[in-house]
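2024-03-11 09:14:02 INFO worker-7 job=invfold-0412 stage=load source=structure_tokens
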């Protein structure tokens, strides 16, 4: 696709729910979380570098990266964290560009939870933010992840605020209500994006 809509929102805001609805209209969805796992699959150059740096115990018997262990090892170690980000971020960015360019739909969605945090707004043609009130966000996340309010609040603290996210939005989806309230918003945006994509041709 020549037209890329970046989708973002905080934890439990409804990014997946929203992108699934666009996918039902045959719009291709590229997910940054999937790409972040792809670049460290067994036998990739990036994983080989990580093994060199952290030792062979950072992968399990199937050769897969032990993400939980890696997270613990870099926790509160800015040097290691930076080393890892410098290795992975350019690869992830490159894959985002390649996969969006290869998408066949008139426009495509690039779902990036940390779009604002990781300075990726300039990678997309338009920014769509899925917005919910904090109370709703916490309630839905706790239900889904089987976690408690404190854990969800800690993750929210590490993300930009709702206000900062809304500042970069071209479009906002209000996901405070039920599906019946969500679907008409998707239908309207879909028509808008088809028209915008058409203009870039
Ligand atoms: P994360 O980034 O944390 O993975 P997300 O932004 O992709 O989350 P979803 O997984 O789509 O969010 O939604 C979070 C939870 O809230 C899910 O359990 C989902 O089914 C539920 N949910 C999303 N939208 C609604 C809605 N409009 N009404 C009721 N429940 C909803």
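2024-03-11 09:14:09 INFO worker-7 stage=emit residues=201
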């Amino acid at each position: 696709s020549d037209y890329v809509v970046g989708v973002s929102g905080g934890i439990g805001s409804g990014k997946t729910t929203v992108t699934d609805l666009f996918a039902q209209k045959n719009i291709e969805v590229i997910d940054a979380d999937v790409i972040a796992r792809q670049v460290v699959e067994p036998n990739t150059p990036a994983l080989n570098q990580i093994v060199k740096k952290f030792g062979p115990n950072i992968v399990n018997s199937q050769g897969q990266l032990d993400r939980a262990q890696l997270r613990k090892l870099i926790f509160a170690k800015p040097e290691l964290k930076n080393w890892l980000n410098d290795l992975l971020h350019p690869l992830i960015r490159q894959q985002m560009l390649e996969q969006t360019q290869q998408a066949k739909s008139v426009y495509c969605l690039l779902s990036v939870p940390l779009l604002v945090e990781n300075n990726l707004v300039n990678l997309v043609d338009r920014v769509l933010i899925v917005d919910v009130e904090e109370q709703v966000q916490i309630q839905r996340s706790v239900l889904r992840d089987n976690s408690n309010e404190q854990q969800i609040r800690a993750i929210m603290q590490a993300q930009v605020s709702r206000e900062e996210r809304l500042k970069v939005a071209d479009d906002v989806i209000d996901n405070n209500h039920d599906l019946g309230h969500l679907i008409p918003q998707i239908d309207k945006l879909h028509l808008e994006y088809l028209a915008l994509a058409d203009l870039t041709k």
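2024-03-11 09:14:09 INFO worker-7 stage=report msg="The longest strand covers residues 126-131."
2024-03-11 09:14:10 INFO worker-7 job finished
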